[in-house]
Design goal:
15% strand; 36% helix
Amino acid sequence: EVCREKTLPVIEKFLEQVGEDDLPPGRKAFVSFELFEHLHNPAAFLGHLKQLMMVGDLFIFTTLSGAGVDIQALWQDSKSVSPPHHLNFLNPVSIRKLLERLGLQVLEVTTPGKLDVDILVNNQAHIKDRFWRTFVASASEEAKQQWQNFIAASGWSSHMMVTCRKP
């Protein structure tokens, strides 16, 4: 709705149903939020998207990172690890390899997450690692925030955002 209010064209279709005639002329930014972990075949999805893209078009998306602190610490008890709903757990390294293999240029991969430590705090009973169990039980709110900032800045959050383009 916000995009429409700003007169930005919005196409609400499954990617496989989008054709070139659906797209506006000129440069485009394709976006996808919290979808990749649900895809049966991310490479096929990206291949279809690349066919729709013109040189210089952007693709910006968010997805889970399987290397994220909360997912790693909770693993089978993580609510994010929930097959058959979440099928793919890429990470900053593997998403770069996939995009580059498919001929897309990676501009940025970040993990700007803000909830990893909160997720651990809310799931303390399932944490098996001694360090994380002790940390979530006894760290100050300030220390938890510092760690969350570090987790996000260093690429270890379970929330990943990627920007790439068709070269």
